[in-house]
Fold these 4 entries.
Entry 1:
Amino acid sequence: MNLLDKLDLDLAWARVKNDSKTDFILSSYLFQIYERHLEENLKKLREKIAQGYRVSELWDIDVPKPHFVLRPGSVPKIEDRIYFQALVDVIAPEVEKKIIPTTDKVIFSHRLSEKPNDSFMFRQSLWNEFEQKVRDNYAAKKTVLVVTDIVGFFEHIDLNILKDMLIRFSCDREISDSIYEVLKSWKRRTNINRGIPQGLWPTDFLGNIYLDSVDKYMLRHGFDYFRYVDDIRISCSTIPEARRALKTLVEELRRLNLNVQTKKTAVYYDGKVKSFIDELSLRMEEITNEVKEALKEEIADEITSETPYVELPYGGTIRIEFSDIEDEVEAKLEEKKELIEIESLRKFYEDTIKNAFPSSKHLRFCLNRLSQLKDDIALDRALTLLQDMPFESNTIISYLKNFPDNEKIRDRIIRFLKSDFNIYDWQEMWLLEYLFSCKCLQGDEIDYLWTVIENHNRHNAVRIRAILLLGRTGLSDHLERLRDLYDIERDEYVRVSIIVSLREYDKGPRNYFYNLCKGHSAFIDQAISYMKEISK
C-alpha cells in the first residue's frame, strides 16, 4: 500500500478545521476560502502527496508569557497541516492502545477520541478530572504533593528521540519517516533538530508519545504520578517520598533532554495541598457565604421593619427574633440566587484585582463568567491589565467584545497601540480584533491602521487584521489604496486579505481588478471566486 492510500484527508481536514479555532494566529477567512473549494483542494493535495510532498515554512508569531518572556507560536499552511494531521491519524489508534490507558488516570491530556472518525481528535478536556485526582489522593491520606512542569516542553522535544519512539511503538515505518521529515523541515531555518510546533492536535498527541517512557518508569517505581500535558503531579505519603519522587522524575526527564521548571516546582503538604488545588473554589465559597449573610440581614431588617413585634396569646407583644422568621428569610434568599451569584462574582473579582499582577487562573474565571453575564464591572481594570498582563490579551479582548462600540474601550485601545507598551505582535493582533465589533471606524483608528499596513516591518498577521478592518469601511478612497498595495505585496496571505477586503468595493471596478489578479496562484483564484460568489 502506498503512502497516499494510508491517509484519510477528509477526516484530517475536518480535524484541522476544528483545531484551527484556537490557533495562535487569527485566520478564519483562509479556512472559509479553502473549504469553499474543498474537493478541488484535496484532489490537488493528493496529487502532491503522490509526487512526494514537501511542507512550507511555518507561520510564526511570538506569544508573550508571564514575566514578559516569549514562547513561539506557529501555524502551518493549511495543506501542510492537513497532510501532517493525516499522518498522525494513521498511527494514533495503535499508539493510544500502547500508552497508559485512560482508565488508569495517569495521562489526562489529549486522549484519542473513542469514535474512529470523530472530527474532534481528542475526548473532551480531562482537566477537572486531573485536579480531582489530587483531591481524591489527599482524602486517601496522601497528604504530600509534588507539583512541577517541564521547561519549554514542546520546544525541547528531540526529533531523533521522537523518531526512535515511533519505531519502538511499531508504527508504520513509512508514516513515521514522513512525520519526522515534516517536523525536520519545519526546523530547517534554525538547523536545530529539536522542537515541534505547540498548539496543534497532532503535536499534542506526539507529546504524549514523547513522555511515555517517563510515565511508565515513574509508575514502575511505585510513584502515584500523573500529568496533564507537561503539568505533573505526584501524590505521596511523606516528604522524603516526595523528594525521592522528584529526584527520580528529574533524572528520567534528563534522558529526554528535558528539565523541570524550578520556579513552578514545589512540594506541598497537609493543608497546603488543599489550598493549592481548591484556592479558587474555597475563596469563592467564602465570598458567597459573606454575600448570603449580608442579604439575610437585609431581608430580616425588611421583615422586622414592617412588623417589629408579634402579639402574645395572652396579651402583650414581644420583639421578633431571627429564629421566628428564619424560614421566611431562607425562602426569600432562595429567590435571590441570581443576585447572590452576580454579587459574589463581583466581590471575587474585586478581591482578585487587588494584586498588581492577579492570578491568571482567577482572572480568566472572572472575565469568562462576567462575559456570560455581560457585566461591565471589570472594564477599566481589564484595559489596565493589557499593559501589565499582555499574555492575557485574548481573554481580555474576548471580554471587552461584549461591549461593542464602547468609546472608552476604543480610545484606550488606540492610545495603547500608539504607546511604547505596544511591543508584542500577538497582542496587537488581538487588540485590533476588538475593532471588528465596532460598526464604523473612527478617523484616528483608520490613520493607525494605515501606519500598520504600510509598514512592512510589522508582522503580517497584524497587517492582515488591519487590511481586513479597512475593507469593512466600504469607503472607496481606502479601498483604492488597498488595491494599489496588491502589487507591492509578495506574501500570498497578505494578497488574499486584500482580495477579501475589496469585497465592499463597487462591483464593476472590483471585478475588473479581480480579473487582473487571476493566475497569480490557485489560492488567490479561489479567493476571487469566493468573494464574487458571496458579494452578488
Note: DSSP finds 25 helices and eight strands in the chain.
Entry 2:
Amino acid sequence: MIRKNKIVKILLALSLAILNLYPSLLVNANNKNDVTQYITNDYYQQVKEQMIAERGYNFFVNHNYAVSLINAFYGVLPTNRFGEVMYPEDFGGMFIDDDGNLVVLQVGNTNDNGLINRFSDGIEIQKVTFSFNEIMAVHRHLTYMFVNSSQFPSMSNVAGSWIDVVNNRLVVYLREYTEELIEEFKMTVLNSPIIAFYQYVSQGIETLVSDSGFDQNSDLESSFSTERFDESPYGFEPNPESIHAPEISGPVLEGEDYISFRTSPARLTPGTWRQVGSHWYFYQNGRRVSNIWIEDAQGRWFRIGPNQRMLTGWFEVSAGRWFFLNPASGQPNHRTGIGGQGAMHTNWSQINSNWHFFNPRSGDPAHQSGIGGEGVMRTGWLHRNNNYYFLNPLPGQNNHRPQLFRGAMFHSGTFTISGRQQQFNASGRWIGEVTSITITPGDAIFIGSPQGGRCSVGFRANNGRNGFVTAAHCGRFAANNDRIYNATGQRIGTLRTNQRFLENIDAAFVETNANVFVATSVPNLRNLSPFAATPVRGQWVFARGSTSGLRSGPVSQINANRWIGEEDRPEDWFLVVNATVGDFGSARGDSGGIAFSHFQNFNYHIQGIAIAGTPSITVISRTSEILVRTGWRLN
C-alpha cells in the first residue's frame, strides 16, 4: 500500500483552510475571478495598475489566487521555537511562475494526485530531487562559514549565495571561476550536489543612504517641506547672538585684572578691597565684613561669604534663589567684560555647556520683580526679545527635568511642560506646541541633524519602547543615541544601533518620542498587519522609500547572502544573510524603507526593509531575520 505523501496532507489542510476562509470558493476555473473580488477596492488600485502594466491582467488574477493559497499553506505549517517554518520532508519548495500560477515542488514519486487535480487550475506540481529542508541545511552551513569567513580562507573567493527554488539548487557565486577553484571549494568548504556554481558579476549594488538632504533628481522633493531650523549639526553650540543675548549694560573694566580700585567711590557700599594671597576681602572701618552684598560705583554686585572672603561660582542666598559669581580669569565659566572676578552674572550666561538666564537690572524689559532682585537665576518660561525660552525649574518643582542642571535652558527637541508637548530649536527658541506627529513607513528621516544623511522609515516595532526599524548603515552619519528628524525638521526620536545590528541584518531601531505615531498603512494602501511575511520566488513585493516612492516587482532571490557596500568604500562593506532580492529599483535615500506583500482583504504582511540596490533591483533585509536576531517585536 502506497503511503500517502505529506505534501498531499498539507494540500488537503490548506484546501480546508481556504474553504473555511471563503466558503463560496469552489475549486474550478472561476475561482481566481472570485478571489479578485476582494481586492478591487480603491486602496488596491495603485498596486493593481502596477502589476497589470508589468505582466497583464491574467497575471494579476493568477498571482492573487496563488497568494491566497500560499498564505493558507503557511497557515497550517508548524514553526520551531525560533519562529522558523518546519517543512514536510517531501516538500521541495514553491514559487510563482511567469504566468502568476503557483508551482509546488515535491520530492519522490506518487500516483496519488486526486487532490492535486482539484487544484489543477491554480497549482502545478513538479517533481524534484532535493527537499527544501536539505537545501536549507546546506544553506545554513554555508551561511555559518560566510559569517565566520575570517576563519575560512577559501571563503574569500565566495561572493554570495542564494536558494534557487526553481532549479532546486543553492547557487554559489565565485569571484574567480575555474575548475581548480571549484574543486578547492568542495574540498575545504562543502561538497554537495545541491550546490550550483556561477561566475560572480558585479551588479554595482550599493547602500541607499543619501549623504545629505534630498537628491536633486528626487521625485519626492517637492512633497516635503524644506524648512530647516538654525542649529548646529554637531550638537548644541549656540553663541550669545544666536539666542538674542543683549550687550552687557554698564561700563567695562579695562583688561582682565581683579577689581582694581582700593576704595569704592561709595555708591551704596563704602569700604576698601584688599587681596591676601589668592583671596579678596572687603574692609569697613578697618574690619573685614562677612555675609554681605557689595555694590561698586558701576552698579556691579559682589558677595562676601561667612568666611569673609569674596565668593565665586554658584551661590544660594535662600531656598531657590541662586546666583552665579564670576570665576577668576582663566577659570572655567569666567565671563569677560562684567567686572572681573566675583562680579554677579546677569542676562544670558553659558555655564558648563548649559545656558542660564539671570535677572537683569530693573528697567530691562526682561527684568522680573518679586523674585529676589537683580542676578537671581530664572526658571520656567522666559520672554526675551520677542522669543520664548524655558529654563529648567528647581528640583521638586513642576516640569523639572532631572537630566538637566537647575535653570538650564531647554533646547533641541520636544519636552512635556504642564502636560503639553512643546518644541524648542537648538538655540533654545520655542517653536510651538506639538500635539502629535505622524510618520508613515517610507517617509524621509534625517540622521543626526535636519541636514544629516537621509534614509527612510521602515516598519513599526517595539524594543521595550515604541519606534520603528530602519537601516543600520544609515548610522554611519551619526552615533548611537543620536537624534532623528523628519522632513520638516522636527525631532521624532533617537537612534539605537550597534555593530552587532549592522552585521548580517543591517537593522537599527529608532525610539520615537512620546508624541510621534508611526502609521499602520502607507498612502493608497490600507493595513500593514504586524506579521512577518515569508518571501516566495515570483511573489509580487512592494517597497516605499523617501526617494523612489512606492514601487513593486517580483521576488527573484530568497535566502540570499550578499556583501553590501559602495564600490568606493570597500572598508565599509558588510555581510547580510538570508536577504530577499526584488526585481524593482531603488535610489539613494530609500535605505530603511519598508517592504511588504499582499495578504488578503487589503491587508499586507511585512517583508522587511530595503537596504541596498541598483536602478533595477532592491535587496531586502527580512523581517523574521531582524526579529530573531534582535528580540524586537512587531506592533
Note: The chain has a mean pLDDT of 79.
Entry 3:
Amino acid sequence: MPPSLTPAALLREMDPFRDLPEEVLDQLADTATFLASSSAPRWPARPHDSATTLFEGEPGAPHTFVPVSPPSDGERPFQAGSILALDSRTLRRAYLDAPDLFRTHPSHAAAQSLQSRVSKTLRHETAFRNASPELLSDLETRLPVRVHAGGERIFSQGAISEYLLIVVSGMVRPSQHQPDGNVKIFSPLGSGAVVGEMGVVLGDTRAADLTAVRDCECLVMDQEIYRSLLVSHPMEISRILGGVIRGHLVAATERQPHGHPSAIAIVPLDAPENAVMAAHELLPAFTALGRVSALTREDGLAMSEFGHGIETAHLNALEKSVDLLLYVADEVEGAWRDCCLRHADHVLFVTSWDAETALRPVEVQFAENKTHSMKRYSLLVLHPAQAPRPQRAREWRAERENAPQHHLRLSTPADAGRVARTLVGKARGLVLGGGGARGFAHVGVIRELKSRGIDVDMVGGNSMGALIGAQFAKGDSPDEILENTLALTRKGERPTLPLVSLVGGRRFARSLENMFEGLTFEDLWTPFFTVACDLTLATTEVLDSGPLHFAVRASNSPAGIFPPTLKRGHLLVDGAILNNVPVDAMRDRVGSGQVIAVDVNPREDLVVDAALERFGPLDVLTRLFSRRTEKLPTLPEILVRAGIVGGIAHRDQTKAMADLLIEPPVGRFPLIGYGQAHTIAQVGQDAARARLS
C-alpha cells in the first residue's frame, strides 16, 4: 500500500463517498483505519450487510459489508494492508446526513434504509422520542440491530438480563409461566416498544419469555452501552427508562391476553386454490371492518428481489398503513408459504369439506414447532353454497380438538362476515338467560335484531334461553321459534314419586329429541353453547359439543322439579343455580367483541306478609283462592327462586361484562305463563327497540 494513499484520498476516489459533503467525508476519513494482516478478516464472495463496513484498498474497487459470523464457504482472505475499516458510528451518521446519496447506491441502499428506519422509530415511536438531540444521536449510531425470525424465542423467563430491546419492525409477544403450570400470554408489542428494560436497569432476571411473532428488527442496548449512556446522559436515560418501567407495571394489570390479529395467513392444507377461494370470500368481509391489504406469492417474490431487510421493513410499513394484512399462501409448500407462517400472528388453515380429515404435515409441524407457540391458528372448512349443514364437522373436530373451527358456504356473505368478525376479534355474541315463560321475551329481542340487520355470530344461553338460543342458532325464524316452543310447553309433564323430582321429565326429553332431530353442536353454522350446573363438582359446565337435545335438556332441568341429567356419572341441572346469564363464557369466546345479554329475571324480591311467622299448605291454598292480593309462594316458585339465586347474586357482574344488557320488564308475567307467550315476546321486542335506539 503506497504511504501517500491516505483514508481521505482513498475515499475521494470511491463511489459513492466521492460525492459526500467535505465535512462528512473528513469525519469518515478521520475515524477510518487500515487493517493489518493479522486482523484482516475473511469475506464472502458476495456483498453482505453487517454492522462492520470494510473496503478493499484498490481505488474505485467495490466494497462489501462483512457479517459478524461469515459463512464457511465461498470465502477468500484479504491481502495484508488492503482493507480500510470505516467507523460504524460515523458511517451510520453519514447515512442520515446524506440519505439520497447512499439510498441510490446498490451496495448501501439496504444499510441506509435500515438506518432510516432506526432513526424514524426512535424519533417518532419510542419512549425516547422527546429525548435531547445528543441522546438520540447516540442511540441512532451506537445501538446495533439484531434480526429475529418469526417464531424465534428471543429470551426466556428467569434468564440473566443482558440487554434490552427496542422493536424497529415486526412484532414480539411476552408470555409468563404461572405457578399453577399455565402460561399467561400477553398482547403483542410492535415497533417502538421497549422490552426487557426492567432486568437491565434493576439487575433482575427476565420476568417473562419473549417470542418474535413475526420477523423482527430490534435495536440492542446491552449492559455496557447502558452504563455508558448513564455516564453521558445520566438524568435523561434514568428518567426515560424509569417511565417505561412504570408504564409496564401499570399495563401488567390491564393488558388483555392475545389482542387483535393484525396479520392473518391463509394457508391451504391441500389444494392451493382453496386458499385463493377463501381469500376471495373473506376479503370483502374484512374490508367492511377496516383497511385491508392482501399479499400473494407474486408480491412476495417482488419484495425478495430488494435483498435482506427490505422485505421485513416493507411488510412492517404496510402493516402500519392498514388494519389487517392478509397473507394468501397460494402454495402447499415453499418459501412464500413459510414466509406467511413466520409473519402472521394468526394462521388460518383452509381445506374443503370433502378432503381427507387427517392432520396434514404442515399442521403437525406447526404444532410441534416451538417457535410458533405464540401464534394462534384455526381451521376453515369450505362448503358448497347450498349445503344445508356443515359436512363432516365432527370428523374435522375430532382430529383437531384444540383448534377453533369455522365453516363457510361459498357465495354466502353471512358466513364470510361471521368468520371475518370472529377472526379479527369483532364477533357479536348474544346471551339469553333463563326465566321460564318470561324467556319468550328472547324471541322478541331476536326479532328486533333481525329487523335492524344486526348480525349475531355466536349464541349462548341457559334454561329457557338455551331452548330458544339453540333454535335460533340452527336457523329457525322468530315465528318458528315461538310456535315450536309453545307447542313443546303445551305437552306438559307427568308428576312422579317425589324422591328425585316432582316430574318425570320423559315427555320433555322426547319433545327435545323431536325438535332437534339428531342435530349436534357441530351441525350449526352459527356457533352455540349452553351451560348447566354440575352438582357433582359444584361448578358451571359449558356444553358446546355433542347432541343439542341433551345439552338443552341439561340446561332446562331445575333441581327438584326435573330429574338431573346424567353425564359421565355427574349430575347436571339448570345452570341458573350458579350462572343464569352466562356472559363470562361468551366473553371468553368473543374476546373484545360485542356481547349482548338478555336478562328476563325481574329485579324483585320473593317476600311474604311481615306479620307471618310461618306458613303451610293450607295458608297457600287459602290465599290462592281468596281475593287477597298478597299471595304466598308455592313449592315450584320456591324451587325456581332457589335455582336462580346464584344468577341474581352475579347480576352486577353480568352487567359489567356485557356491552349491552337488555332487561325486558316481564316481572308481571308468571314463570309458567306460557299462554301469554305472544305478549311476552312483544314486551321483549319493545325493550330491545328502546335499548338499541
Note: The two ends are 85 Å apart (CA to CA).
Entry 4:
Amino acid sequence: MFRTFGFNMKKVVLLFLILAVSATAFSQSIARKWNEEVLHGIRNDFARPVVHARNLFHTSVAMYDAWAVFNNQAAPYFLGSTIDGFTCEFEGFETSEPVSQAQKKSISYAVYRLIKHRFQNSPGKEEIFESIDSLMDELGYDINYTSSNYKNGNPAALGNYVAEQLIAFGLQDGSNEANDYENRFYEPLNKALNLDFVGNSTLEYPNHWQPLKVENWVDQSGNTIPGGQPPFLGPEWGAVVPFSLNENDLKTYSTPEFDYNCYFDPGDPWYIQDYLGIDDPYKWSFAMVSVWSSHLDPTDNVMIDISPASIGNFNSADFPSTFEEYKSFYDYKNGGDPSKGHNKNPVTGNPYQEQLVPRGDYARVLAEFWADGPDSETPPGHWFTILNYVNDQPELIKKFKGTGEVLSDLEWDIKSYFILGGAMHDVAISAWGIKGYYDYVRPVSAVRYMSDQGQSSDPNLPRYNPHGLPLIEDYIELVEEGDPLAGAFNENLHKIKLYAWRGPGEIADPNVDEAGVGWILAEEWFPYQRPSFVTPPFAGYVSGHSTFSRAAAEILTTLTGDPYFPGGMGIFEVKKNEFLVFEQGPSMDMELQWATYRDASDQCSLSRIWGGIHPPIDDIPGREIGEKLGKHAFEFAETYFTKGVAEKGAVYPNPASDFVTILYESEKTLQVSVFDLQGRQVLSQLSDFKQNNKALLNVSALQQGMYFITLQNNVEQNLFTTRLLRN
C-alpha cells in the first residue's frame, strides 16, 4: 500500500497503510524520512501539480547536494554552480563530525528550512510545521539554530546555507513564487462555464480552455477556493528554469503578451471542423469520453480480467500517430487499449492469475486512484509514493541500474529522489508550457458545447449543425417524442441525449449512493468527479498525468535495471465499498496489479478518459513526451553521480572484452586513441563527451593483452591516459 486518501476514505485503508509503513520505518534513511515530510506538506497544501513538482525537485536537490559534499565520486548539482545565471557560491566544506552524522544533519536542516519557507502560506501549515518540528526534535536538532555560515564546520549551517540559496534561486527562477505563483500575462479567451446551469452558452472559442465556476469549489486536496472559479494554474510555467531540458528540446512561440516555451513541442491538437460527424477527429475524441463514461456501471454484467495476464505489455513504438491509428488503438465501445498482457511472471516463472471484476468497478477505481483526489500528493508526488513503495519491497536489490555494488538505503534514496524530482519538475515545465500555449478545451466544456449545437451526423435529421455531437447508436442519440427525457411539454424534444454516468446530482450520500449509468441530456453531462471539483483548473493538452507517469515509469525502469516491479508485480489492494470517494463502491474486493512500471503508466493514462478529464488527443502526446523526457533526465542526472571521477578520468569495465565506457568531463569532442605496449596506435575515434561525460569504445577487435587509452584535445594535448587490460 503506498497511498493515503482523502478525509472521506475509510479508516481501515488508512490503518493498513500505517501498519505497512511502520513495518519498514525502522530502516528508513534520513532522506526517506524527509521525503515523507515533503509529501505530507503537499497533501496539506493547495493541489498545485507544477508547484509541487518544483518543491519535490528542490527538496531533492537540497538532500542530494548535502550528501554529495561528502562523497568523493559525486559532485553537487547546485552548490558551487551557476544555473541559468544564478551563482551559488561555495568554497568547500570541512567538519570534525563523522561523515554519516554530518550528512544526516545537513540534509535535515536543508529540507526543514525549505519546507518552512515553501509551505508558510499553506492552509495546513500548522500540521505541516508540527510534523517537521517533531522530526527535528526526534533527531535531536535545534530548530532555532539558523546560522548559514558553513565555514564554521557545522553541518547544520551547511544545511541552512543550501536552503537559503535554493530559496533565493526560487525567487528568480520564473515561477513568480514571490506573488504566490500568480499568472502575469495569461487571460482566458472564453467566459466561465457556470455548472449550476445546463449547457454551455459561454464557449465562444470551442478549441480553447474555459474556466469553470461552481458554488463551492473544493480542490483535490480538500481546500475551498474562494469565488468558486479558480484561474488557469501555471500557463506560463514553461518559463521556469528546468533541470535537464535544453534549447535543443525547445520551441518558443511569441505572442504580444508572452513568449511561450514548449519543450518537446507536439504540435497542434485536433481542432473542431464543420460537419463530418464522427469523422471529425475533434468530435470523435470528445464523444469517446462520453461513451467511456457509460462503462462506470458495475451492474452492467460486463466482467473483465484486470490482471497482468490480460492488461499491459504494449510497445510504445506502436503508439498511434494518425487519426486512423488512434481509432485502432482505443476500444471505442468497450474501453481499453490493444495491450495483450504478459505470458508469465518473470520472477516466479508462473502465469499471472486471472482476476475477473466488473468493468464498472475497475473503471471507477482507476479514475479515483490515479486522480489523487482529496488529501492528494498530486501526480508528481504520487509517483514518489510509488517509488517509496518499490523501495520498501524486500525483493528489490538496490543496485544502480541493476548492476554494480548494492547501495546503502541513503545513497539509493538520495539518487533516486534527485533523478525523479528533476524529471517531474521538467515534466511540469514541458507539459504546462504546452498547456499554456495551445490552451486546449476540456471534455466538460466541449461535450456541453456540442450538445447545445445539435448533431453533426445526418442533415436529414433534426438539429443538424456543423459543430454538433456525432450520433452513435446506443450512446449518443436524439431525444424523440415519448422519450422520458422529452419532458412533460416536449421541451427537450430533439435535444441530444447520452448513455453515460448520470452525474453527482444522483448522489445524496456517497457512502451509500451510486449514480449509475443511464440516458441523460448531453447538456447535463458531468465527468466522473465530485460536484465541487469538476475538472482540474488548467488546459487539457497535453495530459499531465500521461506525461508525469510515463517519465516516472522510464526512470524506475532504468533505475532498477528491470522493467518489472519487484517480485514481478506491483499491487494495490481495494476493499469492497471502502475505496471509492465519489460514490459507493466498488462492489467487490479487488487489486490493481501491474507487471511493469510502464503498465502502471499506461493504466494511469486510460483512467483520465474514464474519469472524463481527457480525450485521447491529450493522452498519447503526453506519453511520448514523458518517455523522451524521462530517459533524458536520467542521463543528465547520472552525470553528477560520477562527476568527481569524471574530473580525473576513468575507464570501465577494466579488464574488458568488448565495449568500455570512458568517463571524462569535457565540453568538447576529444580524440580517443588506443596504443599497444610498443607504442603503436591500434585504435582511434573522435568522441563527444559534452552530453553526459561519457564515450563508448569498442575494443572487441583487439588481441588479449595490455593497452593504453589516451584522450587528446584538438591541439594534440594529452588530457588523460590509463591502462586497459583486454581479456
Note: The longest strand covers residues 718-726.
